[in-house]
Automatic annotation (TrEMBL):
One cellular component term from this protein's GO annotations in UniProt: plasma membrane
Location(s) in or outside the cell: Cell envelope
GO biological process terms held by the UniProt record: response to antibiotic
Main location per the UniProt record: other
Multidrug resistance protein MdtA-like C-terminal permuted SH3 domain: residues covered: 317-376
Name of this protein: Membrane fusion protein (Multidrug efflux system)
Length: 416
């Protein structure tokens, strides 16, 4: 490339137009080599997104309902004083398991022993009077038969004998009452269970009525009750889904119940629903459901908060897809359906409940269609797709979830 020299002479007053022309020529000469050095950039070609797909299948799918629940002792017994008196001694260790018939408290028995002696003395007196009345009647009856005594004398003798017998009967009742009261001074556990702390201390005066009568609690741990509530809206929704054929309960409502403890670990025993309150709570709009669990190792304690998973229901011909395959649009949920041409087509779907990491799709998909599972965020409408893995249609929802998780792990490096 040659450089054209330009000579600039001193301008004269009459050569201003020629000077402007020379300046334009010089500028064009300098820009020519710069324009010839620019290289054309080829247009960018969009990368084909790599995705994993799954074939949609419909099958009867077990479904669980999860509720927040709380444990309750199947027998929560108040240990109370039945007589008035002084509390001598607490006979158990607070917070330990106690057995049926184990002594928990001992009251001062001496006043009750004295009352028993008095009752026995009165009984003996009445028994002696009864013997005299019987002997008197035995003498009067022959004389009255010989008309040696009047009819009134015979009637008086018979009445005295019966009164004496009744007095003996009443005195025997006093003795039995005194013996019961004496026995009540030894307070025992009526069941095997977990003991609570003592509400009254040694030396306290306790009564058979009022707040001072409560001494402690004993909680039966095996079996254990688990209570949870179902709202009215949930019940109506289940009823509508059953009527529409989208949900089926087990025969005789024989649900199984599993517990998840507060730390996320499952409880080993399976429970059964044994009671459902027929009336709704007017304050909360819910009704109570109770399940019973065996608790042989005393793992469950009263008052624990747990999650109750109620199983046994089935969704007939349900469509279950991984949650990451469903995207949220401006107005609705949608998935990417892979057409026969290998391109992505947006499909609006109606989603229902969760099942683990999957989602029930109640409308919008047909069996046999393929949808994008991993890499859906990189897909655009009518774009060509590169399928790196395909999940086949299976009948086991657990297998779907497992296969989808494995494919997700494999596709994670590609996404990064």
């Amino acid at each position: 490339m040659k450089t054209v020299p330009v000579c600039l002479a001193s301008p004269r007053p009459d050569s201003r137009g020629a000077l402007r022309l020379l300046a334009v020529v010089a500028a064009l000469t300098l820009l020519t080599p710069l324009a010839s050095c620019k290289k054309e950039v080829p247009p960018q070609v969009a990368a084909v997104p790599e995705v994993t797909v799954m074939t949609v299948a419909q099958h009867d799918t077990p479904v669980d309902f999860e509720f927040t629940a709380q444990t309750q002792s199947s027998r929560e017994v108040e240990i109370r004083s039945r007589v008035d008196g002084f509390l001598d001694k607490r006979m158990y260790t607070e917070g330990v398991l106690v057995k049926t018939g184990q002594t928990l408290f001992q009251m001062d028995p001496k006043p009750f022993e004295a009352a028993l002696h008095t009752a026995k003395g009165q009984l003996a007196q009445q028994q002696a009077r009864l013997e005299v009345a019987k002997a008197n009647l035995a003498r009067v009856q022959p004389l009255a038969a010989q008309n040696a005594l009047s009819k009134k004398d015979l009637d008086d003798a018979i009445g005295n004998e019966k009164q004496s017998a009744a007095a003996v009967f009443a005195a025997q009742g006093e003795v039995d009452t005194a013996m019961l009261n004496l026995g009540y001074t030894t307070i025992k556990s009526p069941l095997n269970g977990l003991s609570s702390f003592a509400r009254q201390q040694d030396g306290s005066y306790v009564t058979a009525t009022g707040n001072s009568s409560l001494l402690t609690y004993v909680y039966q741990l095996d079996p254990m009750w688990v209570n949870f509530s179902i709202s009215e809206n949930e019940m109506l929704k289940y009823r509508d889904e059953i009527a529409a054929g989208r949900l089926r309960f087990p025969p005789n409502n024989d649900f199984s119940v599993h517990l998840i403890l507060a730390d996320g670990t499952p409880y080993a025993q399976q429970g059964q629903i044994d009671f459902a309150n027929p009336a709704f709570n007017t304050e909360t709009g819910t009704f109570l459901v109770r399940a019973t669990f065996a608790n042989p190792k005393n793992t469950l304690r009263p008052g624990q908060f747990v999650k109750a998973r109620v199983g046994g229901a089935i969704r007939p011909n349900a469509t279950l897809v991984p949650q990451r395959a469903v995207l949220q649009g401006a107005k609705s949920h949608f998935v990417w359906v892979v057409g026969n041409d290998g391109k992505a087509h947006q499909r609006v779907v109606e989603v229902g409940e969760w099942q683990g990491d999957n989602w029930f799709v109640s409308d919008g998909l047909k069996a046999g269609e393929r949808i994008v599972v991993d890499g859906a965020l990189r897909v655009t409408a009518d774009s060509q797709l590169k399928i790196v893995k395909e999940l086949p249609a299976v009948k086991d929802p657990a297998a779907v979830a497992t296969a989808a998780s494995q494919s997700g792990a494999a596709a994670a490096p590609a996404a990064e």
